[in-house]
Amino acid sequence: MLILILRRLLVAIPVLIIVASITFFLIRLAPGGPFDSEKVVSPQVLKNLNEVYNLNAPVSEQYFDYMVNALQGDFGPSFRYPGRSVSEMILTGLPVTLELAMYAVLFATILGLIAGITAAVRKNTFLDYFPMALAMLGICMPTFLLGPLLLLLFGIELELLPVSGWGDLPGDKILPAITLGAAYAAYIARLARGGMLETLNQDYIRTARAKGLPEFKVVLVHAVRGGLIPVIAFMGPAIAGLIGGSFVVETIFQIPGLGRFYVEAAFNRDYTMILGTTIFFSALIIFFNLLSDLTIALFNPQARSS
Amino acid sequence: MKIFPFILLFVISCSKSISPVDSGFENQIMHIANGSEPQGLDPHIVTGVPEHRLITSLCEGLVITNPKGGPNLPGAAESWDISDDGLVYTFHLQPLAKWSNGEEVTAEDFVWSWMRILTPSLGSQYPDMLYYVKNAAAYHMGEINDFSLVGIKALNSKTLEITLEQPYSFFLKILSHYSTYAVPKNVVLAHGSIDDRNGAWTRPGNFVCNGPMQLKSWELNKSIVAEKNPYYWDAEKVTLNEMHFYPIVNESTEDRMFRAGQLHATYSVPQEKCPVYIKENNPNLRIDPYVGVYFYRINTQNPVLKDKRIRQALAYSIDREQIVKRVSQCGQSPADSFTPPGIDGYFPDTQIPFDPELAAQLLTEAGFPAGEGFPKLEILFNTQEGHRKIALAVQQMWQKYLGIEVELVNTDWKVYLSREMVGDFQISRAGWIGDYEDPNTFLDLMRPNRGNNKTGWENEKYDELIIKANAQSNQENRYAVLREAEKLLIDEMPVLPIYIYVRQFLLSTDVKGWDPNPTDTHHPKFITLER
Amino acid sequence: MEASNSLWAESLYRLKQNKLAVISGFVLLFLIVLAVCAPLIAPHSYSYQNLELGAVSPNATYWLGTDTLGRDQLSRILYGARVSLLVGFVATAVALIIGVSWGIIAGFFGGRIDATMMRIVDVLYGLPFIIFIILLMVIFGRNIWLLFLAIGAVEWLTMARIVRGQVLTLRNQEFVLAAQALGIGNISLFFKHILPNILGTVAVYATLTIPQVMLLEAFLSFLGLGVQPPMSSWGTLIRYGVESMEEFPWMLIFPGLIFTITLFCLNFFGDGLRDALDPKSK
Lengths: 306, 531, 282
Known about the structure:
The complex is a heterotrimer of chains A (about 300), B (about 525) and C (about 280). By secondary structure, chain B is an alpha+beta fold. Helix content of chain B is about 30%, strand content about 20%. In chain B, α10 (about 310-315) packs antiparallel against α12 (about 355-365) and α16 packs antiparallel against α17. The model of chain B is unreliable at about 1-10 (pLDDT under 50). By secondary structure, chain C is an all-alpha fold. Chain C has helices spanning about 1-15, 20-35, 40, 75-110, 110-125, 130-140, 145-170, 175-180, 185-225, 235-245, 250-275. The longest helix of chain C has about 40 residues, at about 185-225.
């Protein structure tokens, strides 16, 4: 087991290098440079700027320089925000986004699992249809709609919660967490229901029932193990996606998180920032995928042998 | 019984807390939405409007913009003399002028600062603001290496002498722009060299400047807090204790924040909201004049669009009245000239008729009766709700009045810029906001070899007119020549002016002294919070 | 052959028994017909602007009201259905085909093949999506097929992971091991025991992907890929509807409603299909 983990972590390094390399060339192929602005800078100034950021050098040299520095943990200065290093910016945004994601995941998992498992156990009853209909609604409802709706209701009409900020005013973390978590709660509910139904039909569950085990034990001990595998497989990329996708929520609620840096860097063609955040998010994805693979192995003794 | 504390907790957490606007009024703390996250605070490096607002609070140029429009007021300079030939400006600095660390602001600081912005390896994007100064361009281009040849000199620690290439009458106006500001030489050098873009001197704790406010804290993507600067020469006039600037890109977000009492001022108003606020006479809605023009660039290198008659046909078939009334809907006025009328007393006398018949006739003369055989036109714009709507309206007008087929192409900002730059477009939407209060900031744009021209239109007569105008020392004569140039431009129509910008935003009625002025500059010393 | 025929027939029979699924299927069919026939049945032009009129609430002339440029909302929704349904189905199909086969191969063969394939997925997950789309556009220009490709290219990744996880579990289950011990070949093992058991999850995930894809289309049109104005899609209608939901709620409610109805039907139909296909549900 330990060797497996070590091997996966070791493999992560070449994966990250490949991601960084592809991204490095992709962004240089994309039209528009970091210093293009509405008021065109003179060729002289542009030349100077490129000089400052080593963009006049041959691409191969830039690539080599970047990689050598990156491997030593130096992701360079941001092109967009002079005087700020990429690492520094990631470190400012990260805690906020992680906290937001944590609340959202917590909200999504608890709500999603309760709804999904209940629905599977009480198949074709009101307790199945109602949460599943709600889950469908949750999936339909994009964050860019849910956020403003919640804000209008709780922020403007009822004046219960602040409409923006993060840790400035009491209660300003509630709505963003719900907005970000809602769609994931819906996904989890549906996947949990599907997986549970699948498992509840399996022979070993029937055996367990036949043995006369109490139903809650059958469900919570035996069925959950197999039934939640799709959920866990989904959770890995979902958590990573949630962190990367927090952009919309961060924009609506004015939260100073990493998601905004990630998306804005792409739109600003802030080369170093794109690379830095991309590498960072890739590492995050690999980590969470590994985590979910491990959890699957733990949940499912049969898969562990492989 | 045990549930009681929870109920109490719930009630406390839900009871309405005092809003930032209310507590701001108590403590003279102003909360302002400020567009996108500022790139930085170094006046010689940044370029945007959000930075403009911050830097005019934190630093001060030789002169400041008059909050009510009109001639500039003294800033870091107490007074100035202009030589009779209009070439030499002598500035007498405020005797009390100090940096926010208590050190004296000297003429030498200005000389060094201008040397800094003209140092090529700094990569400043606004050095051309100083090109009007003698030999400044030559120094920046590397043609001369001796800075003492450039027309800026410290006569003594409080007297500054500036010599121009030509008697540019708008030079004083330029001096309120932040690219001409001084930075504290000692502090900058303590954190890096003269050409260090990434020096840490602009960080909270390090940042030193000479404005009415000073930097207190800066949290990325969250807020920048400026507090009253006790060393400011006119500190007793400043009543605000703090200004909180929030970087908010999303207009709906700031609109909600304003309505929830979290902001005194928004940066803009969502497009759909503006007509509603106008209709309900919302006392918070402000629509101020702004020196900017919204226009369409025409690629005059295009084989079809190089024909002047076609460009005129396109212009005369746009119902600009309808566009401002029904589409942009926020107090904009239809443009009849490229330069917004009234900028420092300059009124162009051009007309752009809305005349579909004349337009159709021009198109026929150009060989496309009723648009027959006219190739498909593309309107390029960067993705934004407002641009999309105007493009849609124009598309329908051209189809209806000229019978030509039009396709809309939207791209992200940088792709749009790069396509415009390399001339990979036919029609592209554009906007221009004046850098200073003078028609030159607009008309200079369309001269040949100007990077921002982008239309491929090169007219020597136009160029000569602009040069001739700027050589006039008499403002009336100068404007007369500029009007002639404007007429030529509107006749040639390399650009289709659509509307004149306004500055629309929400402002709490507590805020006093936030006067409308064409460059949208609001010096903190004139602002108070009163009820 | 006969045996499998009867298996399908049985599934069809089970599907028919499920009333909700049948109704949903018909509603979906109806929507598709509406979309195909949009030019014939749309009461107004989808693009004609009546600037004088502006946004008006639903009335006798404009059943679902008009947008801020005075365009008929009903016609825009009908035309939007064409784009959204096409994108929803085709892009999801692309994602399914790639994702399911990728996941099955990786999970079924395991070992080095699995490791390599899943690391490729990791790499693709990591690449910056926005830059990728912008590049695609620059290289291939704007067209609808590119849109499917772009969406399919991102949406299959999660599918592949889910399917792989399922296959991995199944492969080690007793009945599969037993079948293997009996000497059943890989191919028939796969068709008899693996595929039927993952179809349920795939069907559920597919119904979850379709709404994602329809909304993604709206984001891509922001980048300039996808439908260009004046053409509409449900995604873009909802996006613009959100902007003006306080002033002109009908601009959000109607596109949102039809979007929701479609998704519910898809969902019920997908569930019905899953139950019908399930070899164990008798």
